[in-house]
Amino acid sequence: MKFNDLITKISVNIPIIKDSCDNQTEIIDIALIDGRQNSFQGNVLYFGYSSQLDSVGTPPCHCILVNDGNFLTDRIQNLAFVETSELFSAVNLARTLMKSSGGGLLYEELIKRANETRDLQAVVNTASILLGNSLLFSDVNFKILAHSTSIPVTDDLWKDNIRQGYCSYDFIQAVQQLKPIQQAGHTTDAIEVSCTESPHRKLSSKVFHNDMQVGFLLMIEGETPVTPVHMEMLEVVSHAISYTITHYFAYLFQTGTRYQQLLYELLIGAPPENIASCFPGLEFASKLIALSILPTRYLGERHLKDHIVSALKEVLPGSHVTYHEGKAAVLVPLSKNDDFHGEQLQELQNLVANEHLRIGVSNAFTHVESFAKYYHQAVSALNLGKRLNPENLIFYYIDYQFYDLLDHVEDQSQLGLFCHPALSMLRQYDRKNETCLYATLKVYLDSGCSIKLASEKLFVHRNSLVYRLGRISEISNVDLNDSYIRFMLRMSYLIDCYKGQAA
């Protein structure tokens, strides 16, 4: 509740004189000036005597005072005066008004924000400012759906969770062991969920949609100490988030299948050896692959879930989908081959082109417990493919395995040391003589060292290619008939490609 509104309501029953009203900060609590405060909170209304502020360096922003001293009250932004006999009556009435009306005004402001922006992040940011502390909203799987940026989260544990967009399996298990969590009822009542691993006090309130819990709000104490009023306000924020979900984000909380839950838990780190016992009765094909799907023209998660995934399941029947780090993570059964083929491949290519998608495809595997490991292959193929072959839309891990190995080299600047010196010699020779021996050798190696195939790709006569290969051997002093030399040269070209140096 803002100062002016509170003074107006108090003045109905108690004589009160408003002196100034220059600050529109939301007031979330009231307190008495006791002479021991070293500092004052910017969103608290203080009651007392002006003489109690004589020795104070920086006075409170909001005060209702009995004027009994020489303190220069013009230093107070929001100020009203009452008689001595009315001071404690004003305190009690203000407390009652804060409790009965404050939540309603807060709710109205958040609903207005929701209708204006249709944005969970905007609602959470507004609530964070009004509560004076950082705030985040997570679904029941501990995916972070929104977090305050106006008052950023400073708790190290939750900063890590926000950075990756979700909480790890081990983190979730630890949270679920907290007694307040285990004892919490099916209500929006705020509870304290502080833990020994963090110095910050925390309050949590469940969020419901259609009478089913879909997530929770977490307020993390910062510069504004937690008060009982925060618990009431957090419950109000929970109802405002429920309203926002119902009107604008219901699609985010469609009931998932047990298959989807299993895949998601594997991706966030659930122990593979324990997963089967947690999801009995689920059946999978004997051969599987994982896909990572990323829209290049992102039209929102609703479009991804309702349209793209639905179309994908028609092309790849029997697939199961979950969502992780902004991508669709897909488990696909394989019937005969270790790859897509024929009409199915054509349908997938059409879908990818028409819907502006890029897809990473893992190698085949046999046990669903390995899904997370192979899904990371699909993600690696997607990321490397976008960088190295941006003209393509489907990227197979088998084509990028060596590049993935290079990705894991700690000091990337040292990769050039592993290249065969022949490549550097050929590049220098080409620059000096305006030839193309570097590219010729690459095509020859890519063609399996076939004179016939390489000459066709280069559009030269086979005798011309033989001549060029002879010059390459002379210039770089390599024996192209040596299988180990061929391997080293091939590896060197892959390193050059990875570093963006391939001609």
Automatic annotation (TrEMBL):
Taxonomic lineage of the native organism: Bacteria, Bacillati, Bacillota, Clostridia, Eubacteriales
Pfam family of the protein (one): GGDEF_2
Family label: Belongs to the CdaR family.
PANTHER family: CARBOHYDRATE DIACID REGULATOR (PTHR33744), DNA-BINDING TRANSCRIPTIONAL ACTIVATOR ADER (PTHR33744:SF1)
Protein's name according to its UniProt entry: CdaR family transcriptional regulator
Top-level taxon in the UniProt lineage: Bacteria
Residue stretches making up the PucR C-terminal helix-turn-helix domain: 437-494
Domain CdaR GGDEF-like, first and last residues per copy: 301-383
Gene3D superfamilies: PucR C-terminal helix-turn-helix domain (1.10.10.2840)
